[in-house]
Write a structure and sequence with these properties.
By secondary structure, this protein is of the alpha+beta class. 16% of the residues lie in helices and 44% in strands. The protein has one domain: PCu(A)C copper chaperone (Immunoglobulin-like), CATH 2.60.40.1890. A hairpin with a 4-residue loop joins strand 9 and strand 10.
Length: 165
């Protein structure tokens, strides 16, 4: 027969596990709890259109509004699952990269087909139609806003606009 002292370490282990379950969850530090979102900026209608041909770029579309009292400058866009994202604009049938975009107080800018848009390069296999991908807008000064984009196939996006069957 084994001594009761043999069971003592097991009992201590079980009691310590119970104590862990009753501990309050770790609280985030003040730095981690503070949002990095640019105050007054809203983003709506976010959509990532996958390329028709694998290996070609996709495109992201959305509307960004400056609801703050000061002008802001959109400096960059990143999209999770993409190697690179670039702001572009199509004018007169020609597409060219855009630099920074200033939004005056109360101003909205739409990124849409045939105008301003974000070209999305080298998408990961994990970015699939029906899912989401996080887009982050970075403003001059380093403030950011992150939002989910609905991921759609090009044919699905066209059908939604009434251009499909």
């Amino acid at each position: 027969m084994k001594s009761p002292l043999f069971l003592a370490p097991l009992a201590l282990l079980a009691l310590s596990a119970c104590g862990e379950a009753n501990k309050p969850a770790a609280q985030p530090s003040d730095a981690a709890a503070m949002p990095d979102a640019k105050p007054g900026i809203t983003v709506a209608d976010g959509m990532l259109s996958l390329p028709v041909v694998k290996g070609r770029p996709g495109a992201a579309y959305f509307a960004v509004t400056n609801g703050s009292a000061a002008a802001v400058t959109l400096a960059a866009v990143t999209i999770d699952g993409a190697a690179k994202a670039e702001m572009h604009e199509t004018k007169g049938g020609t597409m060219a990269p855009l630099g920074m975009i200033e939004l005056k107080p109360g101003e909205s800018v739409r990124f849409e087909r045939g105008g301003k848009h974000v070209m999305v390069f080298d998408l990961a296999e994990t970015v699939k139609a029906g899912g989401t991908a996080e887009m982050t807008l970075t403003f001059a000064g380093g403030d950011k806003v992150s939002v989910p984009l609905k991921v759609e196939s090009m044919s699905g996006a066209m059908d939604m606009e009434g251009h499909g069957n």
